[in-house]
Design goal:
Layout lengths: L1 H13 L2 H26 L4 H5 L6 H10 L2 H20 L4 H4 L4 H35 L1 H6 L1 H28 L3 H21 L1 H4 L6 H4 L6 H28 L5
């Protein structure tokens, strides 16, 4: 299993996707910091409003911008690369021909995406925190650093839950362009549904892309974590079942 995971991680790294995604995280943090700093100096927004998105609150503001569409799309692109592209290139069957069990092959790909998304979100957290400290001083950012980190990790849980859902879709859809298009529509629709029907949306994983940043009571946080873990388990079982039955003739 470990060897398979390392192999999948090497594929991601050598494809430069990880590097590109990480650079985007850093660039977004820096650009947002510069823009908000300029707006703050110009005084075009009320002081109460600007205080909610600067200083110690800045990293969460960056997360809220990235978590709705950007991070789920990144996760989906990784899944497409490891499943759809390999299926179409005829390389998906190679580890199977070498005697590796299907469940090991799929779990290795899932874990590789989990690890990559963790590092990407960690890069986002660190770059947003450093940008905040450079522009607004270290005290405000450091005072809320641990609470902010927990929110990033809770959001990470929703992202890996989404990744498993994407694996299920990828096993049925054998075109990366179509997959990205469908996922983009699903994300937009889920965002609209969340805004219109917030209570029923709490049962859906996409609701928690942003929700953890505004949660304060322990019950809601634990409920959200439970929904994300449930998504990983249920859709993980679907993915394994489908992959075991899947004909890989290419």
């Amino acid at each position: 299993m470990i060897k398979n995971i390392k192999n999948e991680l090497c594929k991601i790294y050598k494809s430069y996707r990880f590097i590109i995604f990480s650079l985007i995280m850093v660039l977004v943090s820096v650009l947002m910091g510069v823009i908000l700093s300029f707006v703050e100096k110009q005084g075009t927004l009320p002081e109460e409003t600007i205080s909610m998105v600067t200083g110690g609150a800045f990293p969460l503001q960056v997360l809220s911008v990235l978590s709705d569409i950007v991070l789920p799309i990144f996760a989906t692109i990784l899944v497409c690369f490891l499943v759809i592209d390999e299926y179409n290139n005829g390389t998906l069957k190679l580890p199977l021909l070498c005697g590796h069990k299907r469940v090991v092959v799929l779990l290795s790909k899932i874990i590789a995406v989990f690890v990559t998304m963790f590092v990407i979100i960690l890069v986002s957290y660190l770059s947003a925190s450093v940008t905040g400290m450079v522009i607004w001083g270290s005290k405000e950012v450091l005072d809320t650093a641990w609470e902010t980190y927990l929110v990033f990790m809770e959001t990470y849980l929703s992202m890996i839950s989404w990744s498993v859902i994407a694996f299920v879709l990828a096993l049925y859809i054998h075109n990366s362009g179509t997959m990205i298009g469908i996922v983009s529509v699903l994300l937009v629709v889920s965002s609209i549904v969340t805004g219109l029907f917030p209570e029923p949306s709490k049962m859906l994983v996409p609701y928690y892309f942003k929700a953890f940043a505004t949660m304060s009571d322990l019950h809601s946080i634990l409920f959200g974590i439970g929904i994300c873990i449930e998504g990983i388990v249920i859709f993980g079982m679907f993915a394994i079942g489908k992959f075991n039955r899947m004909e890989i003739s290419k």
